[in-house]
Structures are given as structure tokens and as C-alpha cells.
């Protein structure tokens, strides 16, 4: 291809939307859109680094939102899946939305539409799982702390849920994999990055940074979890399907088996 | 508080409460007020799952397992020789708040053995809910049990604090109730149900005029029936369920396969298998009635008093009513699409949306996610390939069973041999 370009952006959603803006605005023939930390130069195409511009990003956001609210939501969710090549898939989808051909986010017989709706669905499921599997532990500083390791980058999606639920307590949810967290100080939620000295996962060793009563409550919870099980109905396959093993190390009720 | 003592009580009183199946935390709409604690939005959350695969969404405990009644099916009946315990009101409140703050639970499900009298017991349940709402500014989910025989005044108050109320009817027929719970009257169960239904209706009517009308049990009421304790047919159970849905506006009727908890000649022996498959088929039927537009008489009637165990109830119905098939998925209306075996409501929704853009063929339908191994005998689409043989229903059933696997298959493998 002649004159086709690789657009390189900073990895943020706004950065991606700016890249889309650039592509439309400059009528670039895009051969790929890549995060700068994963950039690989192409043999035949030159690259252009896009500088994130929130105004441009907003224009793209509202442009798509005006076409279809479902579409922008699905695009955002699918983007957070961080799956390989997601940028080009979304770019093609956005082009389709704006082309004269009638494309609708409910046309499930279209391959791209179906793929994006499935990705968005997976991310939505992970969001819901994190709302369920976050386990706060009370630190001596009076902060309810949880570390998580979600499959997809769902912290931005769960912020509102925890903000409106735990409005009267300090809390901090930290994504171990992506190395950033959300901190709520009774007024607002902030994005924080920090050096975690220790991960609070299920270990026999008790951490000094937690209040002593914390372990008593975990113990009560584990006991409750055991007592509420009906042995004659055991169904471990179903259990694992609902609580996949990869989350166990963060769930105190599964401590004994980890 | 003494953690050791609480732990002991929690073990006893959670163990006794676990036979209540409902763990729903959905359907309410309580927002967080004045920077308080918690909210309950429409969507429920299961925070964990027990090893039997059931959702753990609420702290489900009894206030006490002392009971003046002697119902044969119940683990806390008076004559059963077990450890007894009782929570103080403040202990339940503290447990709930501390579990909630750690994101273990969506709220509290509080039930109780009947101690002294129905009203005395109900009062204590209401006191817990009141304390949570008014002193702790707790907006999470609260499910209270309506104690059979509780007064109207208490039921009125309970609904002001709780999101959901429930009375477990437990035995689907009046005659079964007489046999297993001789000291209880049928009316004791229905009276609080009726009161709650009327309060909810009144709340809905008043809310239209005065927006600030205090909420009354916004997540509705539910009930539960034990399956396989006495000899009821599936027809008895589902007709009874339909009665509660219709006359008491139940949000849910739960079916609980009976887990033998006592040696009693009126009941299955200890160690008999829990009828999990039957329970599953009843839930499938319940869904067909509530979401798929089926009438209970179409699925269960004098000729078919029991559900097929080897195929799901929709497939069973379709095999008995082949005159409606095959259905053209590109033309049929929503109601008819919903009746094709192997197509769920999600797929119906996707098909209706997708077919506006093009005619659907097998490939599209497969990607949408319908269960073609069942559906293909009952439908045609934009393709020249479809099941053209004029197959007998029994032959279709055999083919479907041959080409699929089911988690309960080994339980009826004896029946399968008839077809091969």
C-alpha cells in the first residue's frame, strides 16, 4: 500500500479517539493503530505519533454517541479489553458507522458488530465480577484496601459503583497487573500509582498493616461460607465456573484451598 | 464483641438458614442517602458461590433456631436434638455492617425459628431492620422472612424497612401441609402474604400521586416450595406456583429439592438423593411461564401431569405439538420464535434485530449462539438445507439425545436404552 500509515498513541482511550480523529481529519489510509509501548514499525508504512487531545477525543465520542449510544458504550468497553488488534477492529467499526452503508450496533449478522458486542460483553462480565470479588481489608490507617488482578482494564468502569456504595468509608482498589489504583477520600475518587510493599493475598502470614480485628472478620466470613454450603448438593464444577480459580488468591473464603 | 462466641452462633444459625434458596439481591432501588452506607440498584451481585454452586449474595442467617413448631421437613423443628442458639439484635447489625463494608455481601437475609409467638419473633426481625436503616444509615438489601401468623401491623412496619419479604409455603398442597406441619394453618401462611400484596399495591397507587411515599418492600415478595418431600406431581407444584404468581403477585417462587434432615416415616429417608434434575426442570418450566409466554396448561395437564426428565420442557412441548413447526425464523413473530427449542430470549432478541438487515442463514444463527442441535428440527432459515425428512417426534428426540450431552444424563441413561 502506498501512503498508508501506522498511528501510534499513548494507550489511553482518549488517545485512541484522537487517533481516530486524525485518521478522519487528515484522510489517512490507516494500516494500523498501535500503543506506543507496543509499537512495531511496519515494513512498508510510515508511522505518525498522535498526541492525545481531549477536545478532539470528545468530538469523536459525541459524534459516535449521536449515531448510537449503544455503539459508543460498546466501543469503550471493547477498548478496555486490551485484546490484540482491538484498535483496528474498532476503527473499522467506527468507519462503518459513519459510512453511507447502514451499519447498526444491533446488526448481529455482521462479523465486526458481533465481535465487538461479544468483547464488550466479556468486559462487562469482568466488571460485574470485580464488583463482586473485591474484598476490602481494613488497614490500620482506616482505609478499606483491596488489590485485584482483573483480566481486562475494568477499574474505570467500577469506580462509580464503589463510589456510590461506600460513600462513608475511605477505600482504595489497586490493580496489581496494571499498577494503578483508585482512591476515595470521602469526597472524590482519584487515580493513584504507588509502590506496593506487599500484596494482600491469602497467606497464612498476617500482615502488620491491617487491624487485628480484620482477621477475625475474615475468619467469621470463612466460617459463614462453610456453614452455608449444603454437602449433599455438592457441585464443584459449577462452583468453579462461577468463581474461576484465577481469582481465588484474593478471596479470603478460598484461603484454605489456595 | 467476643469473636469466638459469635463464630459459634454464626455456624449454627447460618447452617440452619441455608435451606432457604432465595439469595436474590436484585429488583430493589434504594440509593445511597446523605453519604451513608450502601445502595441496592436493580442488579443483584453474587459475591461468592458455595461449593454446591449456589450464589452467596446475602448474609443468610436465623435470628434463632429455637422453635415452638414441629414441622417434619424442617431441621429446626422442636423435636430435633440439635444445638440451639440466638443472636442479639446488635450482633446481627454488627455482623451485617462489617461484612458489607468489606464487600462480602449485598445485605442481610434474616429469618427465624418461631420463638414464643409469631408476633414476638416478627418484632425482633423488624427491630434489626429498623436499626440498620435508622441508626446505621444502611441502604443495602434487606430480606426479611414474614413469620406465618404475624399481625398486619408488624407486616406493614416490616415492609417499610425491608426490600423483600417472603413466607415459605414449603408444602405445595394443603393436604401435604396437614400431614407434615399439623400445628400450622394454611391461613397463617397466606395472611401475611395477602397483607404484603395489598400494601405493595397501595404503595404503587399512592406513589403516583405523592412522590415521597415511603418505599414498601420495593423488591416484592417471594415464596419457596419443597420438592419431593411428599408425593405431589409436577402439575400440582406448577399449578400451585401459578396460583401464587397470579393471586399474590409473587416476584419469585423458588423450588427446593428436599434435603432429608430427619428420620420420619412421612418423608424420604436420610441419605436419599436430592432431586436436583426435577428441581432443574421445574425452574425451566417457571421460566417458560414467566418469560416465554407459555400457559401452564400447555406444559402440564391431566394427560401430562409430570415433566419429561430426559428433555427440557420446551422441547417436550414442541415434540407433542409438531403441527406448529417448522418455524421460519426470518418471518415468525416474537412469540413463535420463543417457542423454538434451543432458542432463548436473548437469541430471540438478537434474531429480531439482525433480520432487519438481511435474511439469516445457518451461519448467522450459529454465530448468534442458538443451540442448533435442538433448534434445527423445528425451523427453517435462508438456506436450502433444512430437515426435510418427515421425522416422528420420538425419532427427533432420539437424534437430539444422541448428538448432545447433558449434565444429568447419567441419571436417566436407563431410559435412553429404549431408543437405541
Outline:
The complex is a heterodimer of chains A (about 260) and B (about 425). Chain A is of the alpha/beta class and about 260 residues long.
Description:
The complex is a heterodimer of chains A (258) and B (420). By secondary structure, chain A is of the alpha/beta class. Chain A folds into 2 domains: 4-123, no CATH class; 134-257, no CATH class. Chain A is built from 8 helices and 8 strands. Chain A has helices at 13-25, 54-67, 69-80, 86-98, 111-133, 155-165, 212-227, 236-242; strands at residues 4-9, 29-35, 46-49, 137-138, 144-148, 171-175, 180-184, 189-192. In chain A, the strands form 2 sheets. In chain A, strands 4-5-6-7-8 form a 5-stranded mixed β-sheet, covered by helices on one side. Chain A has a 3-stranded parallel β-sheet with strand order 2-1-3. In chain A, a hairpin with a 4-residue loop joins β6 (171-175) and β7. In chain A, α1 packs across α2 and α2 (54-67) crosses α3 (69-80). The longest helix of chain A is centred in the middle third of the chain and has 23 residues, at 111-133. Chain A is elongated, with a radius of gyration of 22 Å. The mean pLDDT of chain A is 89. Chain B has 420 residues and is an alpha/beta fold. Chain B has 2 domains: 3-275, Aldolase class I (TIM Barrel), CATH 3.20.20.70; 313-416, no CATH class. In chain B, the strands form 3 sheets. Chain B has a 6-stranded parallel β-sheet. In chain B, strands 1-2 form a two-stranded antiparallel ribbon. The radius of gyration of chain B is 24 Å and the shape is globular. The model of chain B is unreliable at 414-420 (pLDDT under 50). At the A-B interface, α5, β4, α7 and α8 of A face α1, β1, β2, α2 and α12 of B.
